[in-house]
């Protein structure tokens, strides 16, 4: 009797890392992608390219990934093509699971230069099936050293691309020859610090934009659940937020106190209801009372949050709750006050946890009664 073939292991399938490559028109996203895909580390990567227009052109410029390329044309991913992206990601999973295509282990989506990354992230996080099968590894924003300052000044999409990025890649620094371009580069550096105060900035011309620096960032990647969390958070200084010339800013909440899981869930619900449209991105590491030695990773975009992930240990010696919010028009003082109330940090003329949870006049869903 012949031996039976081994059955595949049961249990949840590890999510596939998903990287969003964004950047304004002409920043050099395709050039960077070509360089990255020559690295053997990305040999099992599937690429989705979005081209704004009826005829896709960018895919003709991407080398060496003909069999691992999907092109979405006819619109911008943040607008009309989002449903196409969902259909494509679902179809890729079916074909991968059925053995009709090679089992890719990473997806990179290159957006059009006009795309706002926030709705794309929202689509991935909000979808009940895709959120289980794909895990956001990071957002990489490409910035043109010569024209980037003007793009950030004139286009909100460019500012939002930079603000939500986990890594910034500066291109064309080797072309900064005259005084005018060097002046523009100096203005750009200041704007990048304002919009993304702690996000690592890599110079492509110096060879710094390599796969090891751009991928494996997210805590949902099985091999990086603990090691990558500190870098992924990109936390700002402890005093909270920086002042910007526009209303996009980064705010950080730090707390020694551990929160009961119910209280934290209610904090998120209240934050989502009151500030949701203003939250471009939220990332956090939370200390919970039910198991303070194993922190909870949270990630959200506007009203939508990825299912929380419990780590096996803290990534460093700092065991405080750290929540980083990137918002546009966000009321940072309100966020800090509400979190302090839920953590029972008493302050004059401010609500405490019982006022929020046990108040019979509290909105439905925000009372423990």
What layout of secondary structure does this protein have?
Blueprint (H helix, E strand, L loop, with lengths): L15 E8 L5 H9 L7 E7 L17 E5 L8 H16 L8 E5 L6 H10 L3 H4 E11 L3 H7 L1 H8 L3 E5 L7 H17 L5 E3 L7 H4 L14 H5 L14 E8 L5 H15 L3 E8 L9 E6 L2 E2 L3 E2 L10 E8 L3 H11 L10 H5 L12
Parallel strand pairs: 1-4, 1-5, 2-3, 2-4, 5-6, 6-7
Antiparallel strand pairs: 8-13, 9-10, 9-13, 10-11, 10-12
What is the share of helical residues? 25-40%
H/I helix tally: 12
% residues in beta strands: 15-25%
Strand order of the largest sheet: 3-2-4-1-5-6-7
Gyration radius from CA atoms, angstroms: 22 Å
Q: How many separate domains? A: 2
Order of helices and strands: EHEEHEHHEHHEHEHHEHEEEEEHH
pLDDT < 50 stretches: 52-66, 72-77, 235-244, 363-369
Q: Can you tell me the CATH topology of the largest domain?
A: Rossmann fold
Overall body shape: globular
| CATH level-4 homologous superfamily of the largest domain | P-loop containing nucleotide triphosphate hydrolases
> What is the top-level CATH class of the largest domain?
Alpha Beta
Characterize the biggest β-sheet.
7 strands, parallel
Distance between the termini: 64 Å
Number of strands: 13
What class do helices, strands and sheet pairing give? alpha/beta
CATH architecture of the largest domain: 3-Layer(aba) Sandwich
**Overall pLDDT:** 78
């Amino acid at each position: 009797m012949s031996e039976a073939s081994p059955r595949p292991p049961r249990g949840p399938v590890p999510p596939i890392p998903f990287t969003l490559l964004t950047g304004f028109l002409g920043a050099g996203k395709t050039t960077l992608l070509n360089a990255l895909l020559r690295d053997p580390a990305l040999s099992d990567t599937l690429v989705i390219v979005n081209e704004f227009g009826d005829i896709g052109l960018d895919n003709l410029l991407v080398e060496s990934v003909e069999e691992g390329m999907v092109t979405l044309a006819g619109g911008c991913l943040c607008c009309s093509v989002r449903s196409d992206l969902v259909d494509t990601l679902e179809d890729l999973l079916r074909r991968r699971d059925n053995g009709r295509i090679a089992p890719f282990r990473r997806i990179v989506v290159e957006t059009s230069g006009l795309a706002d990354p926030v709705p794309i992230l929202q689509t991935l996080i909000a979808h009940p099936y895709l959120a289980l099968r794909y895990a956001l590894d990071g957002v990489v924003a490409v910035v043109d050293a010569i024209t980037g300052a003007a793009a950030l000044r004139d286009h909100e999409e460019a500012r939002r691309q930079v603000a939500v990025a986990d890594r910034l890649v500066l291109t064309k620094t080797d072309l900064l020859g005259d005084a005018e371009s060097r002046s523009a580069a100096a203005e750009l550096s200041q704007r990048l610090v304002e919009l993304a105060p702690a996000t690592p900035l890599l110079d492509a011309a110096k060879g710094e934009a390599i796969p090891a620096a751009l991928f494996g960032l997210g805590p949902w990647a099985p091999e990086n659940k603990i090691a990558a969390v500190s870098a992924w958070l990109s936390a700002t200084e402890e005093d909270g937020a920086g002042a910007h010339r526009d209303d996009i800013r980064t705010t950080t909440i730090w707390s020694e106190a551990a929160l009961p899981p119910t209280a934290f869930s209610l904090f998120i619900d209240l934050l989502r209801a009151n500030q949701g449209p203003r939250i471009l991105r939220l990332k956090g590491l939370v200390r919970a009372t039910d198991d303070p030695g194993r922190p909870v990773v949270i990630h959200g975009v506007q009203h939508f949050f990825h299912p929380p992930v419990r780590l096996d240990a803290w990534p460093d010696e700092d065991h405080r709750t750290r929540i980083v919010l990137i918002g546009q028009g966000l009321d940072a003082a309100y966020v800090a006050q509400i979190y302090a109330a839920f953590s029972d940090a008493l302050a004059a003329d401010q609500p405490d946890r019982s006022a929020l949870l046990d108040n019979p006049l509290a909105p439905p869903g925000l009372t423990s009664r």
